[in-house]
Write a structure and sequence with these properties.
mainly alpha, 3-stranded antiparallel sheet, two-stranded antiparallel ribbon, 26 helices, 11 strands
Length: 731
């Protein structure tokens, strides 16, 4: 080569020697070592490190490293910048904020394969739309992805809270104007944002004139597929809220039947709803709310908005409109846990158990990589995680919860009218205006109470599902194991609601027959198998991150409802201890009693369900310690002086390896699940029995003090609710 002076004294050799010296210094190799020897040692050490990092255990335990290498080899590119608008305008369809994910049909037409196959084919990990890190793309919603590094967006929280304070109709103008003036969005982007938030203009009056209605919807950015009742819903419920407020504020005859304090329980619930919705937008993925490429700033469909709702999304994770949600959560959890379960293996005890795992995992779109030498009772860690996700984390809210919420909502809304009747006054007033105000107050109280209770119950149900999933995984390593029947799906129902097993796949019918013949079949994982032990521990780590984005939202909700509980109980104390300063009526105190009791009950239930997850950890660690004690005893037995065979030496070495691995897993569970990342509520409070005791004792004490003060005042101080309209007065 030009400029190369040969082996000795050449510039190339000088450069090589300087490089070797630099690397040697960084690897702590003595400078006096010969250059050739230093180079050989460096190559050996680097080769060893690279080899170890590419071993199966390291690839599994450090998933983001292997994932980075896989994506780098594919040279994936993601466009960025405002020039995305041109592509979206050319597309002319309802889609989101960045170019479509490769493989997604831009027209939204489903491929000929079934929904699980579509999810398996299209839900994948890719480079994030932000340009840094990883993300999980959707199979049903264009340009929507899960972001593992989810952050609380203060800007979205503040602007959402501001918009929610504005009355319906007017909030559309405020939202569009604010987005254009302060966040530099175009008119089209701003109208799409308002529509995505549910802010709409009264164009539903033109619904009978279809062509005009369609043009108005296009101009004002109304979402595709938005049904007519959507317009009525927001306007009428908004009217029910503001009408009684205005009537009480402006009419003396209405105040004769509805005192201003009687509106406070409804306003407390309204504030809770606004804060919950604000937290929702603050914790949505960047692909949905980002000002540059967010999906909510582009034309989209109602189904895209539905996947962001607690009641319609996470509580119904297997809904047809977002069937990819569980698979996306699974992939997102693996990224967050920094594991790669694709090449891990776990022995679940029997071929039937492995078949059930594979069937459930395929149901949400998980496909394992074929392995010729795999035993029939062995499955991959990804399949086990998918099965647990499908069975437990994907379970819908129990059917009795929604009617129960509605029942309590009706009781709360009827409290004020019943209290008025109890005092001998008309339930809904005597004048037309007072009757209308009372009726609207009752209807909106029902709606807002049910809405808030759904948020709170969703938090309790989220932690309950996570507990069930972790319990099933724990049972798999303890005798008698986790019964197979718990993982078999329910028999499908026919057209007339009758059981119709003929509609099931032949594979599932055969599995049912085998389980019926052997009812004691169960998932049993022996942790003395190194591959199974590693896989089980990594599946456990990943399972704790399933639904983490929803879990963060539930954590924020828990703070809101705790504040609402203390506010309601505090108002009761104020009513009685401040009775000399201001008047109140029986309808007001009765509403606060019902509200504080219901909210406090749900808050306590949420904390109890969350703490149950953390309480499992010491029990599991205790069982793992028993396993290591048994292994240590067996090794001690092998150390008894006798003629040792090669089989004894091999068994002892295997036991030592198993002992070290199980001990490491137990210590890791201690550090992560008890010290570093336990389940938290109320923002940063560990969900422990101490937290449960604090919440229950505080709320119960406030309620009991209020009740005791009220009874004392009525029993010995001459107070009663015998005043006009049930007013609390001293005789």
């Amino acid at each position: 080569m030009p400029g190369d002076k040969g082996r000795d004294g050449s510039p190339a050799r000088d450069k090589w020697q300087r490089a070797i010296s630099k690397v040697a210094a960084s690897t702590a190799i003595a400078e006096e070592t010969a250059a050739g020897e230093r180079f050989a040692r460096i190559v050996l050490e680097r080769t060893f490190v690279d080899t170890v990092n590419n071993e199966r255990a390291f690839l599994a335990a450090f998933g983001q490293r292997s994932l980075h290498n896989q994506l780098s080899s594919k040279s994936l590119k993601v466009d960025s910048g405002r020039d995305l608008e041109t592509e979206l305008e050319d597309a002319g369809t309802a889609d989101g904020g960045a170019p479509s994910t490769p493989g997604v049909d831009p027209n939204g037409v489903s491929p000929p394969d079934d929904k699980a196959e579509r999810v398996a084919r299209l839900v994948k990990v890719q480079k994030s739309l932000k340009g840094d890190g990883f993300a999980v793309c959707s199979a049903y919603s264009r340009n929507f992805e899960y972001d593992p590094n989810l952050t609380f967006k203060v800007s979205q929280f503040a602007r959402t809270l501001f918009y929610e304070c504005i009355p319906p109709g007017l909030n559309w103008f405020v939202c569009v104007g604010t987005e254009m003036l302060f966040f530099e969005h175009t008119f089209k982007e701003a109208t799409c944002s308002a529509s995505a938030r549910g802010f709409i203009l009264p164009i539903f009056i033109f619904l009978p004139i279809k062509p005009l209605f369609k043009r108005l919807c296009q101009f004002f950015g109304t979402m595709e597929g938005q049904p007519g009742f959507f317009f009525f819903f927001f306007y009428f419920f908004g009217f029910w809220c503001f009408f009684p407020i205005c009537a009480v504020a402006l009419s003396a005859e209405v105040r004769e039947y509805i005192e201003p304090l009687e509106l406070v329980p409804m306003l407390v619930l309204q504030c809770g709803r606004m804060l919950c919705i604000s937290c929702k937008y603050a914790l949505l993925p960047e692909s949905y709310v980002n000002d540059r490429f967010g999906k909510m700033y582009r034309p989209m469909k109602v189904t895209d908005m539905g996947r962001t709702l607690v009641a319609g999304g996470w509580n119904k994770a297997k809904d047809e409109e977002h069937f990819d949600m569980l698979k996306m959560e699974l992939e997102n959890a693996c990224i967050q846990a920094d594991v790669d379960l694709s090449n891990t293996e776990i022995n679940v005890g029997s071929a039937e158990a492995a078949a059930v795992i594979r069937f459930r995992s395929r149901g949400i779109g998980e496909r394992s990589r074929a392995s010729a030498g795999k035993a029939p009772e062995v499955v991959s860690g990804k399949e086990l995680l998918a099965a647990l996700t499908d069975v437990h984390m994907g379970a819908p809210m129990p059917p009795y919860m929604e009617p129960g919420i509605m029942l309590f909502a009706v009781l709360f809304s009827l409290t004020s009218p019943i209290m008025r009747a109890w005092c001998g006054r008309p339930m809904f007033g005597a004048t037309h205006l007072s009757k209308a105000a009372s009726a609207f107050l009752m209807m909106y109280s029902w709606f807002i109470f049910a809405n808030n209770m759904t948020f709170s119950a969703s938090g309790a149900w989220h932690y309950k599902r996570q507990y069930n999933a972790m319990l099933a995984l724990n049972n798999m390593v303890r005798f008698p194991g986790e019964p197979l029947i718990n993982f078999l799906p329910d028999v499908p129902l026919g057209p007339k609601g009758k059981v119709s097993p003929d509609q099931e796949p032949a594979e599932l019918r055969q599995l049912r027959q085998k389980v019926a013949q052997k009812p004691d079949l169960a998932f049993i994982v022996d942790l003395k198998d190194p591959a199974s032990c590693l896989c089980w521990s990594l599946v456990r780590r990943s399972l704790r991150h399933i639904g983490s984005s929803w879990g963060r939202r539930m954590n924020a909700y828990s703070v809101i409802f705790l504040m609402m509980s203390f506010a309601s109980a505090g108002m009761l104390l104020m009513l009685y201890y401040g009775a000399d300063q201001f008047d109140h009526r029986l309808a007001t105190s009765g509403s606060f009693y019902v509200l504080s009791i219901c909210i406090s009950f749900l808050v306590c239930t949420t904390v109890i369900e969350a703490s149950a997850i953390n309480e499992m950890v010491p029990k599991l660690r205790s069982w793992l310690k028993r396993e290591t004690v048994a292994i240590a005893a067996q090794m001690a037995y092998l150390d008894v002086p006798k003629v040792r065979t090669d089989a004894d030496c091999k068994e002892e070495e295997q036991l030592r390896s198993a002992h070290r691995l199980i001990e490491s897993v137990e210590q890791y569970i201690l550090v992560e699940e008890e010290q570093s990342e336990p389940v938290e509520v109320f923002f940063k409070v560990h969900a422990t029995p101490a937290a449960v005791t604090f919440v229950v004792s505080s709320l119960l004490s406030m309620l009991l003090i209020a009740m005791q003060r009220g009874f004392t005042m009525m029993d010995s101080e001459g107070w009663s609710y015998s005043g006009p309209q049930g007013q609390f007065t001293r005789d």
